[in-house]
Automatic annotation (TrEMBL), chain B:
This protein's record includes keyword Cell inner membrane: yes
Organism of this sequence: Marinobacter santoriniensis NKSG1
Primary location recorded for the protein, binned into one broad class: membrane
GO aspect biological process, one term: transmembrane transport
Membrane-crossing segments per the record: 9-29, 63-85, 97-121, 127-148, 175-196, 229-251
Protein name, entry field: Spermidine/putrescine transport system permease protein PotC
Subcellular locations according to the entry: Cell inner membrane; Cell membrane
Amino acid sequence: MPTPLFVFGAFWKNRPLFMRAGPMTQTLLSLSNLTKQFGGKTVLDSLDLDIYDGEFITLLGPSGCGKTTLLRLIAGFEQPDCGAISLSGVDLTGTPPEGRPLNTVFQHYALFPHMSVFDNVAYGLKMEKRPADEIRDRVGEALAMVQLQDYARRKPQQLSGGQQQRVAIARAVVKRPRLLLLDEPLSALDYKLRRTMQIELKRLQRELGITFVFVTHDQEEALSMSDRVVVLKDGVVQQLGTPREVYERPANLFTARFVGETNFFPGTVDAINGGEIIVDVFGLKRTLRKPGFELHPGQTVHVLLRPEDIRVLEPSDEQGLAGRIVERNYKGSTLDSVIHLDDGTEVLASEFFDEDDPAFDYRLGEPVRVSWVDGWEWLLPEESTVANIGSLADDV
Amino acid sequence: MIRWLPRAWLMLIYGLLYVPIAVLVVFSFNDSRSGYTWGGLSLRWYETLFNNHAMVEAMWNSLWLALSAATVSTLIGGLTALALHRYRFRGKRVLNGMLFVVMMSPEIVLAISLLALFLLVGIQLGYVSLLLAHVTFCLPFVVITVMARLSGFDESLPEAARDLGASDFTMTRTVLIPVIMPALLAGWLLGFTLSLDDVVVSTFVSGPTYEILPLRIYSMVRVGLKPEVNALGTLLLVFSLVMLSLSQWILTRSKQ
């Protein structure tokens, strides 16, 4: 006979969506079991994903991971081999692109070369057969939003890359879609313009309240812009979470390697004491928090440390591991260094300049000791696919 | 050392190309009956030309034929190019190759086979047979011109149009055709010129009811070079220059 508390607990765990706390938990677009093959090669493998209303979600992965295919399936340019796409509960799977209440910003903008900026932006409204004065007002509004109201009569070829990009965005949002799909829209812009457009896009998304599905292979872009990040590899979701979760608590070695830079230290579990474990890293015994996965003494694990988690100590220090500086890169706000430990393991370290020592620097070959702040490490179990990591680094 | 040599060589080449044309133009205004002596400025050969009813009729026939052949082959050729570009189907490569066969095969072979076909099917030699023949040899040129434009075509343009709510047909009408319009016009002009000056195929498939200009000129010069041919040549030259400038104007305008 289950106790009332147990019954309530079971119910609470499976409570319906509307009883769950937190903003943006209403599903707008639901993808279930999506599978797509091209010439026998599986590009998407029974993918499930719920996209919430009003969020900025990024599909992140190396080229060929299926992110663009996923976007094209949502837009309706491709049909899935199996699975379903539904928008607010309405099945969209067989609907042609023109019947879907969502719009796309294309990688190379896809502006109509024979039309003026005005006619490009007005195209979608003309398709809806809106009255001429409404079209004029809404196009003017959309162009003002991207600060291009003075360029309405130009042809796309007379605009710079960044301006063309903004026309493409205005054209896509003028129809007030429920969902905006963006296929690597910033990849053709130079670094500075890309930074500006990232901020611009975030602002637009907040002001319009439209759900953005953003595709990129640039992890920095993904982290800085998104509410949630979907890390994809070989058509399978590797991790789904907030940028912080993906960066600080990667679900597997692929995510850890793809998102940001990571030091992988091999560790061996010595002992487990309740919530703590003792791990041997290069002969160094460290007491760490017990991770979420099953462990037994003698097991090998990966100890993951981001370069900014590394502490570089004086060679006279008793703590840490001995090594030598083999490279130093001045990055403006940080000093990034590469350290070779005595056994040859390469360690990346990134240190901020502070007010005590603004001129601090390393000599090449300088002996140092390497340590890290307890609790900043992240543990992952040994994977059978570790061999893949080497080849993966080339994609990043 | 001899810096004038390349320049002289260039002038020789251009001289060879343009002197005969210049002579033709100059002698069309010659008052003398002889083709070798200058007898003063006159427009009499133009007058003779326009008083020659058979000649004027042949000119109109030729223009009408070129116009209709170019239009029909642009319609068929444009659609063929679109189909070859957009769809994957069995025998696509063969079909594509067959266009080149028509283009490369000697005109005389095409002429004889078309004549045999028309006689077999029972098509009377005249406007219809000429039109069918001209469309046949213009078609590959139109298809290849349009396909060249389509190969540089941004595939996301049709998708963008569909994404913004256009049906496949509306997209074709408002995006695809306007974008390939310069190629369609270029193909049309090419067809027009090819049809206008064709002699070999036309000789075989034309009938007594429908005489066209190249054949008329040919039969005229067989009995001796008449000065009004110079006038006709000059008119044709001016006409093709106008057409050429027109096509260039359209192309540069569409690039803006």
